[in-house]
Amino acid sequence: MGRKSLKEVRQTEIINAFYEVAKETGLENASIAKVARHLDINPSLIIHYFKTREELLLALINFTLERYKGMFQFDAQHPTAENLKELIHNLFSKKWNELFDDGVFYSCYALSYRDDRIKNSFRLLHESLRGMLTSVLEHYQRHNIINVEDVSELAEQVFVLIEGAYYYLGMLEGTEEYQRKIETYRSLALNLISLTLV
Question: Global pTM?
Answer without folding.
Answer: 0.86
